[in-house]
Amino acid sequence: MTFAPKPGCPMCGIVATAAVHPTTQSPRSPSFPDAPVQSEILWRDENFTAYRERAHPVSSNGHIIIAFNLHVPSIYTLSSSDLPLLVNVRNLGRRLLSASSPPFSPGNSSPAPVSPQPTESQFRIGFITPPFKDNKIPVTDHLHAHAYLAPADQLGWWRGVAYGPLAWYAIDDLIAEIRESVSNNRIKSGHENRVNAPIDMVPDAGARTGTANGDEYSTSTLAIPDVEDGLAPLSPSSPRTSFASSSSSRASHL
């Protein structure tokens, strides 16, 4: 299965622009409807492009969008082999939020004062699940994560639905549920100090599946391997089994 860029997709446009304009250059990128301020690219690698949401942030403390470079339609396209990608999204979001100063507010050219390092309870990283969407960032078919620092003081009640329990899928919960679906280890999601759970010390935990006799049935991953790490992609002929087909637990949340 390929995930080629989709003509007219704003996220695909941002990914393509970031590939041309290095992050050290104040790159230009497509704007969403009614967005008077263009995106500021913060990070780009083989798998992700991250930019600061300057036009319509949900938090004055910082709001970052992390888009998959491939035009992946939803989280339900992911398989257990993509767990390292999700771990990287979480770690990247935390790192960028910790390193970035608060963005300028639209219409205000004065930089915000330097704020202290965020506390563990402030991090919010996750996905808005279809059919819900952020009406200020109306993209539902190109997978992207939202990372922001609580409180969401610029959210508003209507957008709050998309970031509330009905539509919001915290990335820690998604990682834990996929691991539970492919392993015998029951991993409690959402508990205190979740990020410090021992299993999170192994980013690939749960990404490989098999039987007790040693046979492996790992599916191909969306990740583009880092040649410097000596990683090779799994065989492209391996069928992909999406998380949606292996677990119906999310349906009970909606």
Number of E-state strands: 6
* Count, helices: 5
Over the alpha carbons, how many angstroms does the gyration radius reach? 18 Å
Strand content: 5-15%
In the sheet with the most strands, the strands line up as: 1-2-3-5-4-6
Note the main sheet. Answer: 6 strands, antiparallel
Q: Which structural class fits the helix and strand makeup?
A: alpha+beta
User: Which descriptor suits the 3D outline?
Assistant: globular
What can you tell me about this protein's structure?
With 254 residues, the chain is an alpha+beta fold. Helices cover 20% and strands 12% of the residues. The chain contains five helices and six strands, in the order H-E-E-E-H-E-E-H-E-H-H. It has helices at residues 10-20, 83-99, 157-162, 171-182, 243-246; strands spanning 40-44, 48-52, 63-68, 123-128, 144-149, 168-170. A six-stranded antiparallel beta sheet has the order 1-2-3-5-4-6, with helices on both faces. Strand 1 and strand 2 form a beta hairpin. Helix 2 (83-99) packs antiparallel against helix 4 (171-182). The longest helix is centred in the middle third of the chain and has 17 residues, at 83-99. The chain starts with 9 loop residues before the first helix and ends in an 8-residue tail after the last helix. Residues 24-36, 227-238 and 247-254 have low confidence and may be disordered.
